[in-house]
Amino acid sequence: MYLQTDMQTMDDLRLFSKADTQGIYDIYNHSFTRGGQTIMEAMFRKPLNNREAILKRINTITAFVNRKASFPFDGAMLDQVEKYISFDDNPDGGTKVSLSEKEVQHGVMAIINLFHTLRQYLASAEMGTVKELEEERLAAIGILNAPAFIPVFNAQPNASISFAAVTAFDVLIRSKEKQQVLQLLHFIYHIDVYISVAQVTLKHNMIFPVVHPKGTSILKVDGVYHPLLKNAVANSLHMTPARNLIFLTGANMAGKSTFLRSFSTAVYIAHMGFPVAAAAMEFSVMDGVYTTINLPDNLGIGASHFYAEVLRVKKIGQELSEGKSLFVLFDELFRGTNVKDALEGTLAVCNAFTNRKDSKFIISSHIIEAADELRKKESAAFYFLPTVMKGTVPAYTYTLEEGVTNDKHGMIIINNEGILDILKQGNKGGKRLNKQL
C-alpha cells in the first residue's frame, strides 16, 4: 500500500523544514486545522505504491481544483472543537484534558455549529459531485442522521443553552458518541487537506501526472523544476525499460544536485497523488524511492563516508534482490574514496543496475572515465549540465544536455578569488583571507 523510502531520502529531498530552511511540505500545507496538518504530514511520510489509491487521490484533489473550492468551515470553531474533544491528545477516545464549565459550554456550542454546517456541506452540489468521496460522504450523513444526534440538530447554532442541556450534550459527545464525532472530524480533516492541495495546484500551476501500472517501467518528466526556487530552470528527462540508467556529469556549481532534487521530488510527490512542479509527467508505480545526496558519516558505528556509501549500496541491492522496482539516485557515487576505487566501484554498481529493467537509476559522478565503459550498455544514457566560460569566469545554463562533460574549473575559481596569492603573502595574507571569509 505504501511506497518504501527512508529518512535519508526525506532529508535529501528536504521534505520538511529545518531551522530557517523551508521544506516541500510547507508549499503544499495550507491546512486550516491541526488535524489536517497531521494527516498531510502522514501523507508525506507514507507515499502510496498502489495505482488505484494514487488515482483516487489525484481525482479527488482534481475535483476540488475544478470547483476552485474553499474550506467551508470556520477555523476558530474547529480549534474549539479540537480542544473540547481532546482529539489530538488522546485519539483512542479517552479524555486527558480537564476542561472548565465555560470551556465545556463553548465546546458543546462549537460541536452544534459544526454539525449544522457539516450537514449543509454534505448536501451541497460541491460535495455531491465528488464521486471519489461518495462512500465517505454517505458514511458521514449516516452518522449525522443517527437518532442519538437528533438533540444536536434540535438545538439552534449560536443559541444559548441551559446548564442542564450542556451537561447532557457533554455526556453524549464526549462519552457515548465520541468515536462517531471523531470519525466526522477525520472526514473534515481530509477535506481540509484536499482543498489545501487544490488551492496550491491553482496558485503554482502544478500538474497531475499520468499514472501507469506497476511493472510498465515508464518515467517521463517534462519541464521539471524545484518548487522552492524562484526563476528555476526547467529540464526534461525520459526513462524507459530500454533506458533505465542515467549517468550525469557536470562541474561543481553547474546545478547537478538541484536537478537531481527536482526530478526525485517529482517522483516522490507523484506517488503521493499530489500535483508536481513540472509541465507534464508520466510514471509507472514503483515499490520504493531511495536517494543518496547528502550522506553523512555514520559515527555511531564508526563508519567513514565511504563505508556509509557501501552500506547504502548494499541496502539498495538487498531491496532489488527481492524483486522490487525502485527509483534509485546516487549523487557522486563513492565520493568518499580514491579515484581508482571510485572508478571500479562506480562501474561495478552501474553495470549491475543496467540489468534491472524494472527499476530506474540516476548516478551523478565526476569519474567521467566510467562513461567509456558504460557506453557498451544499451540501457545507459548520458547527460550533463554545462559550464560556459566567459573569459576566466565560469557561467552555468542549468539546462540538461545529452553527452558527457569533463568540465572542471575548481582551480579557476580558486585563482579568481586570489586565494593562492593571499596565502603566498604569509601572515599578512592570512589575515586578509580571514577578513574575506
Automatic annotation (TrEMBL):
What Pfam families is this protein classified in?
Answer: MutS_V (PF00488)
- Reply yes or no: does the keyword Nucleotide-binding apply: yes
Tell me which species this is from.
Answer: Chitinophaga nivalis
Q: Would you tell me the protein name for this molecule?
A: DNA mismatch repair protein
Domain DNA mismatch repair proteins mutS family, by residue range, is: 243-431
Question: InterPro entries attached here?
Answer: DNA_mismatch_repair_MutS_C (IPR000432), DNA_mismatch_repair_MutS_sf (IPR036187), MutS (IPR045076), P-loop_NTPase (IPR027417)
PANTHER family reported in the protein's UniProt record: DNA MISMATCH REPAIR PROTEIN (PTHR11361:SF99), DNA MISMATCH REPAIR PROTEIN MUTS FAMILY MEMBER (PTHR11361)
Provide the alphabetized UniProt keywords.
ATP-binding, DNA-binding, Nucleotide-binding
Family matches, as Gene3D superfamilies: 1.10.1420.10, P-loop containing nucleotide triphosphate hydrolases
